[in-house]
């Protein structure tokens, strides 16, 4: 703007010298509080407002510019001056007619002296009219609706007359001074811009909610702009000629000042909180809660105000936000893990939830990640997608740290009273993490290894710790098979199964799914240890009947193991053929039949090697060395070609 203020451009109403306006001003001075803007002035319109559907004086019929020219003789300049001094805006149309009559007189050859005299009177009248019109429009909702409608109509008429005069061109050789364009519309727009600056630039009061200065400023500007524009749409627009477009005038001025204020703030090095709030207003609250609000959307979408900040600056702020938020998430997760590790070391017993040991760590981490993503999504959904990918990488890094901290706890804190309880609580955490990744963050069921790897290792190490004592108790029982030369295998296996059954309640504080997974580990251990005893080469049977009897014992034992483990939750069906097929190899006598069985076995258990086969064939003392060599050769094709995803024989060492 130029150095002239809105007070210069739009003179106050007192300068109009209208007696009836003096009375209005005197009444206003009795008010105890100043006006708080457009939204607080609505009482002017609500008092005595007619019900919807009833005609009112503030609703002119037809286009305001379609009124007929004054009929009969025009009033004199002196008469118009008296009318204007009384605040009568109806004098605008006769004044316009007087101006046009003056132009006609100039074209008719009237003397230059007379033209100058008459024009000076017309221009003096326009000064009075301008003061009246712009004075009303400076505080539009302080005046009666009908007077406001008249002022808006006069403003629109003057703008149309400016355009008409510009299209007609200046008359040549006339003594008249070119008075058009008068640019009242520009003066009014400057006053609107000044009002926007004053309204939005007011210092917001401190609040009790702990908002920063920038947050209070953003909230004040957003709330003020929305309320003021709603008042413009609801109160000024119905009274204004359509070609004046009052909504666009106010919206553009408020938008420009809002944008200028935000651009000024963005130049500084902002704290994390203010960076987030700035983006939240630019990308979400301003376009959605103001521009597309129910009362404003229809008008403001047409105006196309655009963004509060340029795209490049928004991208820079988004990059800063992402960096800040990721750093904050990392710090919060590290702090949560440190606090959890300290609880383990202090031997604090874990909580119980639905009869299972429970840790808050997984919930804390999931909440930290989710809040970071929700914060980004509150700005834009696209930013939420961007941060999700980064946060999942940070989650993977956290899970590796979590696994290392857990392994350290397993190694150093074995003597603590709540050691096993905390182990189970941490195994149970794996379910919370997996559920969040599959459901909340919508990762595919086949979770990536960098996310599931640390959790699988943590669970596996936890199972090993929990089962260490049980497996230690089973070791001497399994040794009985070879010590008794398989004389009473059913009784030996019965003792093993009884021991396992007695210890299973120790694991009831695990989630059901982990009790089943732990039972699969037990199932694997029973089958593996049984095979180890068969592979000790301590038993050599040369009689066919002895081989048949051993095969029957193995089949019976395999059935007991499978039934017991399945009843207690194991779903390791892949182990079902491990012992029965070995029994069949021991029973068969035809080398060709044995080869077929061995080949089939090797497809089921790719880690079954020649060494393992030789240990089993050593039981069959009636095979010649050539027959053994021939049977072993069947593994030449497959050995080393496949890797088992579920190891069995790779866990068994043979001499």
UniProtKB/TrEMBL annotation:
It holds the Pfam family Sec6. The keyword Protein transport does not apply. The keyword Isomerase does not apply. Residues 1-75 are annotated as: Disordered. InterPro entries: EXOC3/Sec6, EXOC3/Sec6_C. GO terms for biological process: angiogenesis; cell differentiation; exocytosis. Keywords: Angiogenesis, Developmental protein, Differentiation. One of its GO terms (cellular component) is exocyst. May play a role as a mediator of inflammation and angiogenesis. Belongs to the SEC6 family. This is Tumor necrosis factor alpha-induced protein 2.
């Amino acid at each position: 703007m130029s150095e002239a203020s809105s007070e210069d451009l739009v003179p106050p109403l007192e300068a109009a010298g209208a007696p009836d306006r003096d009375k209005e001003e005197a009444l206003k001075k009795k008010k105890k509080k100043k006006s708080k803007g457009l939204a607080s002035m609505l009482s002017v319109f609500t008092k005595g407002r007619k019900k919807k559907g009833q005609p009112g004086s503030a609703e002119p019929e037809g286009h305001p510019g379609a009124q007929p020219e004054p009929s009969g003789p025009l009033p004199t300049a002196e008469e118009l001056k008296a009318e204007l001094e009384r605040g009568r805006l109806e004098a605008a149309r006769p004044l316009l007619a007087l101006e046009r009559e003056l132009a006609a007189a100039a074209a008719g050859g009237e003397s230059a002296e007379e033209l100058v005299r008459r024009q000076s009177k017309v221009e003096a009248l326009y000064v009075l009219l301008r003061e009246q019109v712009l004075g009303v429009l400076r505080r539009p909702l302080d005046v009666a609706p009908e007077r406001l409608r008249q002022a808006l109509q006069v403003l629109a008429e003057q703008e149309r007359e400016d355009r008409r005069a510009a299209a007609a061109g200046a008359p040549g050789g006339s003594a008249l001074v070119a008075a058009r364009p008068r640019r009242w519309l520009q003066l009014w727009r400057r006053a609107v811009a000044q009002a926007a600056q004053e309204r939005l630039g007011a210092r917001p009061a401190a609040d009790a909610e702990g908002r920063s200065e920038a947050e209070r400023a953003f909230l004040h500007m957003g709330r003020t702009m929305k309320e003021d524009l709603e008042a413009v749409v609801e109160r000024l627009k119905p009274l204004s000629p359509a070609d004046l477009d009052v909504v666009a005038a106010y919206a553009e001025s408020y938008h420009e000042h809002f944008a200028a204020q935000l651009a000024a703030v963005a130049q500084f090095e902002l704290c994390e909180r203010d960076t987030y709030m700035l983006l939240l207003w630019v990308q979400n609250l301003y376009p959605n809660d103001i521009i597309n609000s129910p009362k404003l959307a229809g008008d403001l979408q047409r105006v196309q105000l655009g963004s509060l900040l340029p795209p490049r600056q928004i991208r820079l702020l988004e990059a800063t936000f992402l960096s800040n938020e990721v750093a904050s998430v990392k710090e919060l997760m590290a702090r949560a893990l440190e606090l959890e590790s300290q609880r383990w070391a202090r031997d604090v017993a874990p909580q119980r939830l639905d009869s299972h040991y429970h840790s808050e760590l997984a919930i804390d981490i999931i909440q930290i990640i989710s809040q970071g993503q929700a914060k980004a999504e509150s700005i834009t959904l696209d930013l939420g997608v961007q941060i999700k990918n980064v946060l999942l990488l940070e989650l993977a890094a956290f899970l590796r740290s979590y696994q290392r901290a857990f392994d350290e706890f397993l190694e150093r804190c074995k003597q603590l009273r709540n050691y096993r309880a905390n182990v189970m609580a941490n195994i149970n955490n794996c379910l919370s993490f997996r559920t969040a990744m599959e459901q909340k963050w919508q990762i595919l069921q086949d979770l990536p290894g960098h996310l599931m790897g640390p959790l699988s290792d943590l669970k596996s190490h936890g199972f090993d710790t929990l089962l260490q004592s049980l497996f230690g108790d089973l070791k001497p029982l399994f040794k009985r098979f070879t010590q008794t030369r398989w004389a009473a295998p059913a009784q030996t296996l019965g003792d093993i199964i009884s021991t396992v059954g007695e210890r299973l309640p120790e694991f009831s504080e695990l989630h059901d799914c982990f009790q089943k997974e732990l039972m699969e580990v037990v199932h694997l251990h029973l089958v593996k240890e049984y095979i180890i005893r068969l592979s000790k080469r301590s038993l050599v049977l040369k009689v066919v009947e002895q081989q048949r009897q051993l095969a029957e014992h193995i089949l019976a034992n395999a059935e007991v193991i499978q039934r017991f483990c399945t009843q207690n939750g194991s779903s390791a069906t892949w182990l079902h053929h491990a012992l029965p097929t070995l029994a069949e190899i021991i029973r068969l006598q035809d080398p060709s039949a044995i080869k077929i069985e061995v080949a089939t076995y090797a497809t089921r258990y790719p880690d079954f090697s020649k060494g393992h086969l030789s240990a089993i064939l050593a039981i069959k003392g009636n095979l010649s060395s050539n027959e053994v060599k021939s049977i072993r050769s069947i593994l030449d094709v497959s050995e080393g070609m496949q890797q088992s995803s579920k190891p069995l024989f790779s866990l068994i060492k043979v001499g």
